[in-house]
Design a protein that fits this description.
Layout (H helix, E strand, L loop, with lengths): L1 H16 L1 H30 L10 E3 L12 H10 L3 E16 L5 E8 L2 H6 L5 E2 L14 E5 H8 L9 E4 L2 E9 L12 E3 L1 H4 L13 E6 L5 H18 L1 H4 L7 E2 H41 L1 H9 L4 H37 L14 H26 L4 H5 L13 H32 L10 E7 L2 H4 L3 H16 L4 E7 L9 E7 L11 E10 L1 H5 L3 E4 L13 E5 H7 L9 E5 L8 E7 L14 E5 L10 E8 L7 H11 L6 E5 H8 L1 H35 L1 H9 L4 H30 L15 H27 L3 H6 L2
Parallel strand pairs: 3-8, 5-7, 14-19, 16-18
Antiparallel strand pairs: 1-9, 1-10, 2-3, 2-6, 2-9, 4-7, 5-8, 6-7, 11-20, 11-21, 12-14, 12-20, 13-14, 13-17, 15-18, 16-19, 17-18
Length: 807
């Protein structure tokens, strides 16, 4: 221990003696370790940390085969429970349902989940207060009960435990609060405000097998493997598809681990970022190893004297490693400090769609990761320089053999390390270039509408007052659009079911009267958007042929529709769609033919990354479906759209004072949200690539500067014998080019192999994009040239007399 403390004190004295190197090394390692710790905290919290439920390893999600969601019905789940032997319990739930909280202040739109009672048993959560509902309360005709989510309980009811037992009004229906659930009950992290039993909240879904709006979750029995459950569920659901071909055809369920389901779409991007920052840290360590190798060469005489006086090589090796470990530990401390700040920055800049974001924290596992990084970096950085310091016999160093007289450059190891830095930097730059080009194409993709000065807000007509009353629904929305149109500063106002970049899209099978439609699978799929008001002018969607809807296209007029450009191109290629007729296939309804009166431009449907879907617009006043009481207002304003948020709510309340307006958002924010994940990945990897470039540039410079210093005597002799200075410049530049060339070739090969991991996160960009590789090569070549130029000029400026005077 005394020897160790002596080594540490000596290491600190040596580091204090070179403050510039020490500060630079600590900051470099601190940045690398801090950034790695932050990204690891995200990976640990989102991907690695177990779910906060008892027996979480037995929780599974039950999606359709090849899809991300279940889209099943309650009768399906009833059959699964009866036939399956692999599950302790299976439950369905429907997140994202909307209910209006009325009374005690302004009406508020709540984000609810309709869940079967078994849902709470499956995930194993216990209420913070009260209890959860039972099967006896999941019966039509009984009093409606609800369990509040923790967020609503704290926000609206000030965490009052006496709320249990109170009756509240949800969408005009009295509802008794029976309990409060912790936020962890919200499996998907959607901000669920309350939970309701389906029999009272959505009674129409209890026995309808074709109502596929539910998700399914299950708990495996002890000892049952996921593979066995997958085989069983495939068998069960294929049998149901044979029994009910109309509603269950093609509905094959394949269970997946719940954690995998929740983080599946962000797992790869997070691991790519973790690998990228690991490369940056490795480049930093190589760079510091280069500097220490140069310093080790300068300390050969000191170590030779120590060896001559009887010191053991192992003792001196330990001392040298103590110096590098001290630098690494100081860098680790700096990194942890930066990680505390960096985590908050990551949460602020990261995509708000990141699942399990509340689990991202700097806990003991993350701190242990930071410590392991620091120790590994210290050992890696210090070992090679320490061994280099003992190269050669002590007598050679004592005889002056280290004073710039190396005939051939002794730093070939430095060349290899510099080439490794370049290779790693190439991998990062190629990856960053691919993601940047992908994001640029996504950002500049034609979206088909103008999002500037557009405000979007959601409204749902409660079923107690408007359910099944088509005329009343039309009157309400028409009156609201008229009121909203009168708001000062509003240029155009409209109502639509399913605005652009929105997941609430209505899909229908569309039949054409100019072709046969006798089978169940005839027709084409399309998004149907009922609209009311100035929808096309509000979003700047062009009418390419025909006309837009007018006020005359009401319930008493001839049925008309407008199709988008893709629909016309797919269904009637090369033909004029104006005047043609189509109908929607609705189960149990007779066909109602509608005439195409216009063709609108294509717009992105549910996200920026999705291709334009086939779309059919119809006047809302001619809509026959009565259960679709939800929709969105779209306002085109002359100035800041958020300034119209409060007037919009007041305009709606003038028509119905008990109707809340939810999700009031500028369309530019909706657009930004749809590309947030791609922007975050491209920005983060781009930042890492810039850091790698700077570090690689510094590394090449350090190698060449060290090489010039080592060959000072040789260069002096060359110049004294009449060598031209430009030849000396070329000599140094050739060495820099050789190291950079080796790194470029190795880096491009590695990038070509690793970039295939990015395939699933790229948009209209291939992993072998030629421009990205050429750009990376040119950029690294330019960086290497810049890093080589200054040492080359310094070598050419060597004074032969000064270089030879010591001889």
């Amino acid at each position: 221990m005394d020897t160790l403390l002596l080594d540490l004190r000596y290491a600190l004295r040596r580091l204090v003696a070179v403050p510039g190197f020490t500060i630079g090394a600590v900051l470099s390692l601190g940045l690398g370790i801090g950034a790695s710790t932050v990204i690891f905290s995200a990976v640990n919290g989102v991907v690695l940390r177990p779910l906060p439920y008892p027996g979480a390893d037995r929780l599974v999600f039950l999606p359709r085969e090849g899809e991300a969601e279940s889209d099943v019905s309650i009768p399906d789940a009833v059959d699964w429970r009866a036939r399956s032997q692999s599950f302790d319990a299976i439950a369905t739930f429907a997140p994202g349902m909307s209910f209006d909280l009325l009374g005690d202040g302004e009406p508020e739109r709540l984000n609810a989940a309709v869940a079967e009672p078994d849902y709470f048993d499956v995930i194993g959560v216990r209420p913070l207060a009260g209890r959860v509902y039972t099967a006896a309360e999941n019966v039509s005709g009984v009093e409606q009960v609800a369990v509040l989510g923790e967020g609503l309980w704290r926000r609206r009811f000030a965490s009052d435990p006496n709320v249990v037992g109170r009756t509240i009004t949800l969408s005009d229906k009295p509802t008794r609060v029976i309990g409060v659930l912790a936020a962890s009950a919200d499996v998907a992290g959607l901000g669920i405000d309350l939970y309701l039993p389906p029999a009272t909240a959505t009674p129409w879904a209890m026995h309808e097998r074709g109502t596929n709006h539910l998700q399914a979750i299950g708990r495996l029995k002890p000892g049952v493997t996921l593979g066995a459950a997958q085989v069983e569920m495939r068998t069960i659901t294929r049998a149901l598809a044979a029994d009910y071909p109309r509603t269950n055809g093609g509905k094959v369920i394949v269970p997946v681990d719940l954690r995998t389901h929740l983080v599946g779409n962000v797992r790869l991007p997070l691991f790519i970022l973790l690998g990228s920052i690991a490369l940056v840290l490795l480049i930093t360590c190589i760079n510091l190893a280069n500097f220490l190798l140069a310093r080790a060469a300068g300390r050969r005489q000191e170590l030779a004297v120590r060896l001559a006086l009887g010191a053991g090589r192992a003792r001196l090796l330990r001392q040298l490693l103590a110096e590098s470990m001290t630098v690494a530990l100081l860098g680790g401390l700096a990194g942890v400090g930066l990680a505390v700040w960096g985590r908050d920055l990551l949460m602020a800049l990261g995509p708000d769609t990141l699942p399990r974001v509340g689990e991202v924290k700097l806990d003991w596992a993350v701190l242990a990761f930071a410590l392991a990084l620091a120790l590994a970096a210290g050992f890696f950085v210090g070992l090679a320089p320490a061994l280099e310091a003992f190269r050669g016999a002590p007598a050679e160093a004592l005889g002056g053999g280290n004073r710039g007289t190396a005939g051939r450059w002794r730093g070939r190891r430095l060349d290899v390390l510099a080439a490794a830095q370049v290779a790693l930097a190439v991998v990062l730059v190629v990856g960053a270039s691919l993601l940047t080009r992908s994001f640029s194409r996504l950002l500049h993709a034609r979206i088909g509408f103008d999002p500037s000065n557009v405000l979007v807000a959601d409204v749902v007509l409660p079923g107690a007052r408007y359910g099944g009353k088509r005329e009343l629904q039309s009157q309400a929305y028409r009156a609201m659009v008229e009121e909203v149109s009168r708001i000062p500063g509003v240029a155009h106002a409209a109502f639509v079911i399913g605005p652009p970049l929105n997941s609430s899209q209505i899909g229908h099978t569309v039949l054409m009267d100019d072709r046969p439609h006798t089978g169940d699978h005839d027709g084409v799929g399309a998004r149907v958007r009922p609209i009311l008001g100035d929808y096309f002018p509000a979003l700047g969607i062009p009418i390419l042929k025909g006309r837009a809807f007018t006020a005359a296209d009401d319930a008493g007029a001839a049925r008309v529709v407008i199709v988008n450009e893709r629909f016309a191109r797919d269904v009637w290629p090369g033909l004029d769609p104006i005047g043609r007729r189509l109908a929607f296939r609705l189960e149990g309804d007779s066909l109602i033919w509608r005439t195409v009166v216009g063709v609108a431009g294509d717009v992105r449907s549910s996200s920026m990354a999705d291709a334009d879907s086939r779309a059919v617009y119809e006047p809302y006043l001619q809509r026959d479906v009565v259960w679709q009481t939800f929709g969105s207002f779209v306002l085109k304003t002359r100035s800041d759209p958020l300034a119209a948020a409060r007037p919009l709510a007041e305009a709606v309340w003038r028509v119905d004072p008990r109707l809340p307006v939810g999700s009031v958002t500028p369309m530019t924010r909706v657009l930004a949200h749809s590309i947030a994940r791609q922007r975050f990945s491209a920005g983060a990897l781009g930042g890492f690539a810039v850091a790698a470039l700077l570090i690689a540039m510094q590394g090449i410079y350090a190698v060449l500067a060290y090489a010039v210093a080592m060959r000072r005597r040789e260069i002096g002799i060359r110049l004294a014998l009449g060598a031209e200075r430009r030849r000396v410049v070329q000599l140094v530049l050739r060495r820099g080019a050789a190291a950079a060339g080796m790194g470029l070739v190795a880096g491009l090969v590695a990038a070509l192999a690793l970039s295939r991991l990015l395939r699933t996160v790229l948009y209209e960009t291939t992993p072998t994009d030629f421009v990205s590789y050429v750009a990376a090569a040119l950029l690294l070549g330019g960086v290497a040239a810049c890093a080589s130029w200054l040492p080359a000029r310094r070598a050419a400026g060597t004074d032969p007399m000064i270089a030879l005077r010591s001889e």
